[in-house]
């Protein structure tokens, strides 16, 4: 059965055909005969209890420099779609949150993946706090005294913005580093939210693992190894993706969080694991599936579309 699929994402011309997960999902949908439409978050409109988007018919192909064709944009009633893929990249700001409120008006009649209310309620650094025994020691606070006390206790710490992404604004503060107070002053100037502080995990030097879950089941993992002289392993800042296997601990983490992810309609999730610790749960725009396919032959797009089609 051919489905009508709208993809809310970033400009299609900017994606990497070798790394972008949304592109891989679009290719698989097209392979199955589904009809694709592309629109940007700013094309979304709510009027008279109807949700429309100025969307364009989309065709994709794995050809560098010629990877898409867009038709003419026109107003599409999203309630007539079978599926909307919520795939815009962070930042997870008020603009992003607003789109989840708007898309709630069509879900679940139109299946939105991931469920927009659950996306809104599951910021990656906060959602993980609901699962006991999986995180490293963590503090979320404004109070400089609390942050300094946490550092006195754990010595080596990571300080990062609560709603940051891609490794931006992540600082490794060592016990003898004198910049903590100045850093907190800087964060106060740029962010209204508390900061998140965690005990530094030296295992990050061996990599920050991205584990992919489809409808609550762990299906595979890649490792992201930081560049020399870098505490961050995000590929946006020079981390290198390498092949790895899921460990017994990775499977245990997936089994602990998987039922809740499934209950919340979080079909496509990427979690970050350093050593034995779960550090983030990414439900907004997970990446890593193309690397997983190249390393291990695991076809996550096919698994995801199987899961989506089963829900319909």
Automatic annotation (TrEMBL):
It catalyses: gamma-L-glutamyl-L-cysteine + glycine + ATP = glutathione + ADP + phosphate + H(+). Keywords: ATP-binding, Glutathione biosynthesis, Ligase, Magnesium, Manganese, Metal-binding, Nucleotide-binding. GO terms for cellular component: cytoplasm. Its EC number is 6.3.2.3. InterPro entries: ATP-grasp, ATP_grasp_subdomain_1, Glut_synth_pro, GSHS_ATP-bd, GSHS_N, PreATP-grasp_dom_sf. GO terms for molecular function: ATP binding; glutathione synthase activity; metal ion binding. It is an enzyme of class 6 (ligase). Pathway: Sulfur metabolism; glutathione biosynthesis; glutathione from L-cysteine and L-glutamate: step 2/2. Its cofactor is Mg(2+); Mn(2+). The keyword Metal-binding applies. Residues 125-309 form the ATP-grasp domain. NCBIfam families: glut_syn (TIGR01380), PRK05246.1 (NF003573). Belongs to the prokaryotic GSH synthase family. This is Glutathione synthetase. The gene is gshB.
């Amino acid at each position: 059965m051919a489905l009508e699929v709208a993809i809310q994402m970033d400009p299609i011309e900017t994606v990497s055909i070798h790394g972008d997960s949304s592109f891989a999902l679009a290719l698989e949908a097209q392979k199955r005969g589904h009809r694709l439409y592309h629109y940007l978050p700013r094309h979304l409109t709510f009027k008279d209890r109807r949700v429309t988007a100025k969307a364009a018919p989309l065709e994709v192909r794995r050809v560098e420099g010629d990877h898409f064709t867009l038709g003419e944009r026109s107003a599409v009633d999203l309630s007539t779609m079978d599926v909307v893929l919520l795939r815009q990249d962070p930042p997870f700001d008020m603009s992003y949150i607003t789109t989840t409120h708007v898309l709630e008006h069509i879900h679940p009649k139109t299946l939105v993946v991931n469920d927009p209310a659950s996306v809104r309620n599951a910021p990656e650094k906060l959602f993980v706090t609901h699962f006991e025994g999986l995180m490293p020691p963590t503090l979320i606070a404004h109070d400089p005294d609390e942050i300094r006390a946490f550092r006195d206790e754990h010595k080596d710490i990571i300080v990062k913005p609560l709603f940051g992404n891609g490794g931006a604004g992540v600082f490794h503060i060592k016990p003898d580093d004198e910049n903590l107070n100045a850093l907190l002053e800087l964060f106060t100037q740029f962010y209204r939210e508390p900061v998140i502080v965690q005990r530094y995990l030296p295992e990050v030097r061996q990599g920050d693992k991205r584990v992919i879950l489809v409808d609550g089941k762990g299906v595979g993992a890649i490792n992201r190894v930081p560049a020399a002289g870098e505490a961050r392993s995000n590929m946006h800042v020079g981390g290198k993706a390498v092949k790895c296997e899921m460990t017994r601990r990775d499977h245990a983490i997936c089994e602990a969080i998987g039922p809740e992810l499934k209950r919340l309609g979080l079909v496509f999730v990427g979690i970050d694991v350093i050593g034995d610790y779960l550090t983030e749960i990414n439900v907004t725009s997970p990446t890593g599936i193309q690397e997983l396919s190249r390393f291990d032959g695991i076809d996550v797009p096919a698994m995801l579309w199987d899961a989506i089609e089963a829900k319909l």
